[in-house]
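Batch 3, record 17
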Amino acid sequence: MQMTAEQSGTKYHLVTITVNGDPYTRAVKANTLLVNLLRDDLDLTGTKKGCELGDCGSCTVHLDGKPVNSCLVLALEADGREITTIEGVSQGSELDTIQKSFLENTAVQCGYCTPGMIMSAKALLERNPNPTELEVREAIAGNLCRCTGYVNIVKAILAAAEKQNKEQ
Amino acid sequence: MYLPDFEYYAPATVNEACELLAKLGPGAKVLAGGTDILSKMKQDQLSLDAVVSIKNFNQLTEIVENDKGDVIIGARVTHNSLIDSPVLQKKYPSICHTAHQMANNQVRNTGTIGGNIVNAVPSADLPPILIALGAQVKLVGTGGERILPLEDFFTGPNESVIKQDEILTEFIIEKQSLTGSNYLKFALRRSGALAVAGVAVAVAMDGNTCTKARIVMGAVAPTPARAKGAEQFLAGKEVTDELLEEVGNRAAAESKPISDIRGSAEYRRDLVGVLTRRALKKAISEGHV
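Prediction for the assembled complex:
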């Protein structure tokens, strides 16, 4: 990280991050949050903002492979690290197994929590390809769905696990 | 919800960080995981001129067991790394179980053990179990380092003995002869909820006799507190259900809870009795620390 010129009294720092495989360098203020860098500077608006306090999980992204709340991470703290957002989950226009499973199981109502849910589900299945229902519920405990659609979300994640295991 | 402006520093060494903290004064704080201080800043509960990030101190993300059998936990270890640590799973699985009861997966991937201690929130989950296990903390400042028992670290809600120029760098759990320990927490939800009350215990058993016991209560006093009267009452006695019931009652009597949105003082005191009894039973019967 290096300091760039001060503009009208405001200090900017250079931050370099890899998002969904692509490197980006941007000048950010110290108080820029990762979620705002992703949404406002990189136009990756799939990552949502909900409670912005680490409770709802709408802003979940993978930081070096682990799900975190991007609303509670300074952009500068992500310097040099790898980020995956919901935009990086599909292979081109081919949806990921988990995304397809959400559609097939009607696990989406208003859709606002869905990107975060899918990021949490993806992290779970990468770590644990055969989760129990309890493990699924635990993995998405930090993702709130206010349409109360948890039953179908859990179903979708379990079905995705089964499908992935069959494909392998 | 945007953060107010502040200066950001990410020094390369701990010494540099201490000097920065000393120079910047009380308006500057250490930034570790950020899950606590960033959310406080967003809600205007904390105002800072500068944060000193410790992200470059990779040596503080390790958990090791030295040749003496002491376990050293770096202050930057995240809660999920506590859960995943082979050293802790072998030596002190009760720490893994405690970390598993905290917050949610995303926060556990970011929040650190150091932050959970330095924030000194009375309902924090890690202090009771770490105190029960006799953990010590290493504080590094501009004038050198000091090591003190975690039990002596807290002075009040959100207050501790840490000085402006000091950084908590590691936890030391010296080798000891315990036969069981655990932390039980009662919260209003299974996940993402603060403890209404929490009790950690550590015991050494000789057959059916308890030779040593530590009982530490969380969320029921201004700081995590040992129930020393209950500990002394238990030590040296043959364990029976009636005895554990009485130990629980004594611990409850020693707690000094307040009433708040999560529970009344009376309810909390009751919880301490129940949790103490259950935690002791579990620690005694499970036969591992």
